[in-house]
Amino acid sequence: MSRGRSNSLIVRTPEGIEFSILLAGPVVRLLAWGIDICCISLITGMVGGLLKLFSIISQDLGLALITLAGYVISVGYGIGCEWLWRGQTLGKRLLRLRVVDEKGLRLQFSQVVVRNLLRVVDGLPLLYMVGGAACLISGKSQRLGDIAASTIVVRNPELSLPEMERLGDDKFNSLAEHPHLAARLRQKVGRDELAISLSALMRREELEPAARVELFGELAGYFRALVRFPHETVAGVSDERYVRNVVEVVLSRKKVAGRM
Amino acid sequence: MIIDLERFIAEEKPFWDELEALLDQMEQDVAFSMDLGGVTRFHFLYQRASADLARLDGFSAAPEFRQYLESLVARAFGEIHETRERPHRFAPRAWLFGRFPQTFRRHIRQFQLSLAITLVGCLFGAAALMFAPADKEVLLPFQHLMGTPAERVAKEEQGADKRLEKTKLTFSSHLMTHNTQVSVACMASGLTFGIGTLMLLFYNGVILGAVIFDYVTAGQSIFLAGWLLPHGVVEIPAILLAGQGGLILAGALIGRESGLRLGQRMRRVWGDLVTLMGGVALMLVWAGLIEALFSQYHEPVLPYSVKIGFGVAELLLLVLFLAKSGSGSSATPPGGKNV
């Protein structure tokens, strides 16, 4: 396991596979904590309102229960939520954060308790200044409680599989008619250019019209210069269509004549 | 290396969808469990997704696919490779009479240090009051300890029957929460390599020593014993146990005795810290109740002999409990099962 990019942790599995975990920074964690504080206040207020009913029997009993409930909720909220929701409080859930073991494993109950009890030190002198400073210094964005409990807070952005259909339609691809040039294209197109083109095609609907024309113009110009196809093959083909044809040929969406 | 990305995705997507659905179910349902067939299938799906991720390696044309697969594999990895024993159903009796005292005894050296520091603080507090009696308000910054002990005893004995008449439970709840906060702070201060824990223990000792010296030299030993013993014999050991926890934490942080890495050292002490703090919380609940409902009543309402006798009996039971309870059953090794 090692630090990869500045905000991620690279985990290498026993199977030899590497994957990265996005680490949550102090700002987003502070926001989640703010939401949690609001929740704690709300729950305490609601429970306190209910416990006030005991004041009918005895005011002393009512006040005692409210005091105890306030403390139990403030300490138990983090522990209970993180244990039941596998490392998430409501604030973390809303901001798509999760506490996990620093090795990427499941949290254990004792880890949850330790990291929550040690908030006392992280919260010093106020507004989590110690914890925030530790987060900034720590290689894994850990506050002191996280270091002691061997936990990290990760970001789980909502990811879905990109749809290949968004690449475009199944229209005729004139570039595939020239297998030797298509093969040269596959050979010459670099991974970075292909990645940019693929992303541009998938997100083309999100682009401003002018930016879309400019982007595909530049990409098509680059590809046209890379391998020159006969004039009659590319005449009348728009820049965007040209880029789509190149990506299709390189990714073999369209079978090049004479090849499988 | 993938030649045909579209075909690759079309072939593998059903497996990824199945794995994703399974992971969603696991994360949403706390009680979710699988039979052997389910586990085998889950393992197969994880391995397949891992293999797909490896095939995408170096194929930077598809960063979105890689990101998606990485998130799937990361989520499944935690479930597949978690080999630590999962907690058994919590058995309060076994925990209280077995695990808690066993944990205390396993770290007896840290407790002894915690006790020693408190005693040094006591001596310092007593000596400070002896040599600088004018500084009493600095040493004991509490309103009810400001006057002379004789004045307080007279006041307490006069108004004992009316004291806290309508606020006993509220007072008790305040004591419980305050003492628990102090204990948690004492344990958590172990993160300062134990310096914070030692300072808190020393400071508690200073106050205790100064109070004892103040009352004993004023000839109010009986009142003091009757006032402090019923709740103090549980409350003070609870703070000492919290200090023990703080020193365990500091020990793991410093890692003097082993060649283990920080994470490994910490893993060895989590369970013990949680156990100790659980025990401390229980002790403080008891102490809070006794302090509010029993300790605050003095003669003539409650004879001092009863209060002192009760306190001594509590102390003996506590010592017996911590020293002997659970000694017959097998002790959990350090770094073993975590709660």
Topology summary:
The complex is a heterodimer of chains A (260) and B (339).
Chain A: E1 2-3, E2 8-12, E3 18-22, H1 26-51, H2 59-84, H3 90-94, E4 97-101, H4 109-117, H5 119-122, H6 129-137, H7 144-149, E5 151-155, H8 179-188, H9 191-202, H10 209-226, H11 231-234, H12 239-250
Antiparallel strand pairs in A: 1-2, 2-3, 4-5
Helix pairs in contact in A: 1-2, 2-4, 9-12, 10-12
Chain B: H1 5-28, H2 36-56, H3 63-80, H4 92-106, H5 108-131, H6 136-139, H7 149-159, H8 168-188, H9 195-217, H10 221-254, H11 262-295, H12 304-324
Helix pairs in contact in B: 1-2, 1-3, 2-3, 4-11, 4-12, 5-9, 5-10, 8-9, 8-10, 8-11, 9-10, 10-11, 10-12
What general outline of chain B do the C-alpha atoms trace?
elongated
> How much helical structure, as a percent, in the residues of chain A?
40-55%
The whole-number mean of residue pLDDT values of chain B reads 84
Secondary-structure class of chain B: mainly alpha
**Net shape of chain A:** elongated
Strand order of the largest sheet of chain A: 1-2-3
User: What is the domain total for the residues of chain A?
Assistant: 2
Please count the beta strands of chain B (DSSP E, at least 2 residues each).
0
CA gyration radius of chain B, whole angstroms: 28 Å
Terminal-residue CA separation of chain A: 41 Å
